[in-house]
Model the fold of this input.
Amino acid sequence: MCGIIGILGEENVQYSLSIALQTIQHRGQDSCGMGTKTGKKFYLEKDDGLVKDVFNEKKLKEFEGELGIGHVRYPTMGSGGKVNAQPFLANQPGMFMAHNGNIINYYQLRKELLQKSLYLTSSCDIEPVLYILAEELLKIKKKNFKTKDLIKALKKTYKRVRGTYTIVGNLYLDGEETMFACRDPHGIRPGVWGEKNGKFMVASESVALETLGYNFKGDIPHGEVMIFKKDKKPDRYKIEVKEHTPCIFEYIYFARPDSKISGKTPYNVRLELGRKLAKKVKKKNIDFDVVIPVPDTARPAATAIADELGIPVREGFIKNRYSARTFIMNSQKDREFAMRLKHNIIEEEFRNKNVLIIDDSIVRGTTTKYIVKLVKKAKPKKLHIGIFSPPVNHPCFYGIDISREEELIARKFKKDYDRGLDKLENKIAEYSEADSLTYLDINDLEGVLDYDYCSACFDGKYPLPLKEEEVKSIEMDRDETHG
Done:
C-alpha cells in the first residue's frame, strides 16, 4: 500500500505536493518522492524517510513547474529504500509515473523486458509498467502524441499487466501538458480526483484534496482513464472494466477515517462494525466497566460499542505520535521494537476494572500479545479483547502486506478455526493471555457497504485470481524483503 498525489495547473506545484503528501503519510513511511515538469525540463527527487524531512524548504526551492506527481511508499513488492521510491521517469517519451497497489505479475514483466535488453533500475513493481506503457506508445509514434494514442497504448498495457493499482502519470498530449490517472479493472485500490478553478488534483484519499482546497468530485472510475488538461473538462475513457470490488481493509484499518472511498467514510464504516461487535460481545454476558480503544483506528468502533453497551469509553493508551505504524514495517524485529516505542498506558483506567480493549484486526498477533502484557502491569480484574473485523485468514496479494499464510495467527490455529469461530477466539485469547477475545464473523461484514468489495484476506475469495507462479514470486519477494 502506498499513497499517490498528482497536481496539474498550480504554480510552484512542489509546495502543494509536499503538503498533500503529508496528509497521506499514513499510507507509507519508508520513502517518498516527487517529480515536477516545466516545459521540457523534468525535476525528480526521491529519498528514504518522511516527507517533512526529505522535502525541506531548501530542497523544495530546487523544483519548478505547474505539473507534479508525488508518492509515499510502503513496500509490498520490492524492498524499501531510495532505489525503489517513486515516481519513476521514462526519458522517452518524457513521462513520470507513480502508483498505489501491487503488480502481481511483476517478475514475468521484468523477464519480458530483460529479453529485450531493457534493464530495470529497481525492484519496484511500477517501473516495468512505466516502460511497457512507454514501449506501447512508441510503437504508435515517436512524438506528437494524441489522446487516442495514450488510450490505445493503455489498452495494450492493461492486457500485459496484472494487478491492482491506481496510477497517476503525465504526458504531453494534443500539444498540451496533460495529467492522466487510471485504476485497475476491479478498482481494488482507492483513487479520487478534485478540481479548483481549472486546476486538477488526483490522490489516494480525499483528505489530500480537502487540505489544498480542491472540490472533491469523486472516484477515478475503475477500469478507466481520466485525462486532465488545465482549464478544460476532464475526459473519461474505458480501458477494461470488471466488477467493482474496493478493498474492505481500507475501511477497517488503512485509510484515514475522514476520507471518502466509493461514497463511504471509514469513520462511519467503523462505527457500524462497532455496533455489530457490541451485539456479539453482549451475547457472551460478560460484565465490563470500561471500553478502551487501541489508537487510532479503533476509536470509532469503541465509541459505538460503549454506546450500545451503556458503559463509558476511555483513553487508556497514549500513542507516541512520532512512531511509525507497526503493521507496515518490513520485519517482525522492526515491529516488535516499534511496538515498545509506540504505546504507553494510563494505569488508572485499567486498575481493578473489567476492561474491554477494542482493536481493528489481528494479523500476526504481535500487537495483541504485547498490549495484553503491557496492560496486565496495571492489574486489571479481567482483560477482554474485541476485534471489529473477522480473522485474517489469507494473504493479501493486492497491496497490503498481509504476508504468507504461516505468519497469520489465525492460520496457526486453523484446526481450531475449522471447528468454529468460538474455538479460534478461545485459542488466541489463551495465546495472548487475555481473559476472552471476540471477533466479527465474515457474515457480519454484510450490509456495511452497499456494494461489493474485496475481502480476500478474510474469506480467500480473490476478485483477480492469481496464477501459481505469481503466488510463488510474491512469496519469494516478501521473503527477500523481510529477511
Remarks:
- The chain has 17 helices and 19 strands.
